[in-house]
Amino acid sequence: MSSPLPEPTSLPPPRSSRPATGASDRGARWAVAIALLAAALAVGLAWNAQQALSSLSQSAGGRLADLGAELAQSKAALALAQGALRDTQARVAELESRVSDAQDNRVAVEEMYRELSRSADDRMLAEVEQLLILASQQLQLAGNVKGALIALQAADQRLARADKLQVANLRRALNGDMDRLKALPLVDTVGIAVKLDALVQQADTLPLTVSETLPAARTVTRAKLPDENGYLRVARDFWEEMKGLVRIREIAPSEAALLSPAQSFFLRENLKLRLLAARVALLARDEASYRDDIRISAAWIGKYFDAKARVNVNALATLKQLGESPVSITPPDINASLSAVRSARAAREKR
Q1: What's phi and psi for 305, nearest 5 deg?
Q2: Could you tell me if 52 and 175 lie in one domain?
Q3: Could you give the C-alpha distances from 100 to 21, 103, 111, 114, 298, in angstroms and in order?
Q4: Is the same domain home to 287 and 205?
């Protein structure tokens, strides 16, 4: 902004004094020049300030516009970031679930691996224990000494192949139990049962002392002759029928019993029942009932069946042999072997 020039307050001095007048003019000119320069400088400064303010205003407006655009971009980027964050959180949750499942699976796999990674010696001891339990069951439940011996021998053979396993005490206990079982009388339960079954099947074919069939001679005499007339044939048939009413037989043993066909049938069935009862008593290790059934069966065959028939003689010999066979023994236990194998397994597990 330009300032107004100062107005002169006094008239110039009179011309009478020339030197003073010239100096005063020069001072006024300098003052005017300085005032003009100051006014020009002020105007320039004001214009520059106005230009600077205008430029600052324009730059501030542009900056605000840029800031508004950047703010809008930031908001859009923030929205995208929030969406990405939600997706990431969902994926993280899914990954955490998968990690949890993977950990569970890893625990299960490790447990399975520990089960599968059991040493061969541990598995062998477990198999030996199962064999000993089977042998004990055979002894206590069925009295099968032979089956128990087979199981003990199989266990000893398995232990013999274990070079690195310290099983001296276990094998010593096994050998002691096997020696006690070998000292027992052998009861061939299966063989005795097979012989009894064979006798049951033969019961229907054993010949009785008195034959159940008609003699063959009577059937031959009743054959028709081609040159015989009717009267003679009728008379001969009448005579044959009359002879059939009375039959005379010679029986060597005076105490032999005569049986009708119905009685013969029931005799054979009762004999089968006695033999089957003996088989049941054998499996139950009831020696008294077994021997009683064998004795009664032999007595029936000797009394009612033909003593001269070879098949009857063989049946009586078989029954005599079966009656003398032992069927009931008191088998020892194998607790020493069971205790030894369980102690070995416990020692292995503590390691």
Answers
A1: -110, 160
A2: no
A3: 111, 5, 17, 21, 79
A4: yes
